[in-house]
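[#protein-structures] MJ: dropping Flagellar hook protein FlgE here for a structure pass
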Amino acid sequence: MSFNIGLSGLRAATSDLNITGNNIANAGTIGFKQSRAEFADLYAASVQGTGKNTQGAGVQLANVSQSFNQGNINYTQNALDLAINGNGFFQTSNNGEISYTRAGYFGTDRDGYMVNNFGYRLQGYAVDGNGNLQNGVITDLRIQSASQAPQATTQLTQTFNLNSTNTIPTTTPFDPTDPTTYNSSTSTNIYDTQGNAHVLTQYFVKTGPNAWTMNVLVDGRNPADPSVTTPYSMAMGFTASGQLNTASLVSGDYDGAGATDFTVDPVNGRFTLNGWVPATADSSVPPVWSANGATAATGGIQVDLRASTQFASSFAVNAVSQDGYTTGQLAGLEIDDTGVIFARYTNGQSNVQGQIILASFANTQGLTPVGKSAWAQSFQSGEPVIGTPRAGTLGALQSGALEDSNVEVSEQLVNMIVAQRNYQASAKAIETESAITQTIINLR
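AK: finished. structure tokens for Flagellar hook protein FlgE:
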């Protein structure tokens, strides 16, 4: 019996040394969680049960548990390196085989899928054709690296102030090349369906108290007929307090359809630039303008001037925005703390590419380690609870960072010394039993 007890002690100490050595070996492994050996004593069973003076039969390894406490966050400046600050696991798929990990080494493969350093695909919510997240539909996350298609301008919003102290220009008629024929001007880029930029210029001419005319040219040409420089014109009226309150069409019919090229809402200072023919100039002198093959946005460009004013201060454009843009190349990725992946393009635009999900378990100790810093679901762990970072008890996501191993090396070295002493003591017990047995054998 003493030999068996000593042997069980040797086996237990060996297991303890193996577990401690594994912890130390993985002190630098990203996302690793340290383990500990949990032992239990052994007693021989009998038909009638054990008595109060029963001697022990040794020790057994009852369990190897893992500590899932947080590791340190180490910043790497690589946008696709990810760390979880708090509860949760990344969910990855290897040809349909699901595993869970805290190791956030991620990049993209040749097909654009987000994968870890073993090629397992990171999972999350994808987006539809309109860029809307498909919450609840879990799939492999994929980064679209293709160029972003251009978008023709459909809306333009401006806020400007016209100087009420300006006088009516004495030089007439309006000539965009003669600054004495207008009081002020401003220019804004707009885009056609091919992503070509065009300059929309507005010239403001004071015509009387609280009354102005706005002349509109695109690339210095008439919007509907680039062969001429005759502008679209709109009359604007302001209240005594300087607020824009009326608008009316002056000129804008260049296709013979009856003032349909340039329509005006007379109530609140909005107009629609219809019939715009995007044009380009050739290299001749003087240049000849002609259609460039692209078109304007369907429905024209809605221009909103409702917030504009006429006060006794210098002309100024306070705000301007428009929704068109040219084509763009993928310039970089950003991932926020809720796991939403944003793609940035060289045209200044960005869009959502997907959202990373996290999984949590009722019993993390029940997860089955499968190597490669990953775990698999088991009966003891329960079903995964899926959510997005920062939702419920799930942790926040940190882009450009990795979670270090939670191994404390100094603690493990102490554990190794203790396991070594236990091994030596068990070996000594076997040696002593051997000596006693030899003494009995030597009796005559």
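MJ: nice. The chain has three domains: 2-69+406-441, 73-134+357-403, 155-322.
AK: one more thing. The chain has two helices and 32 strands.
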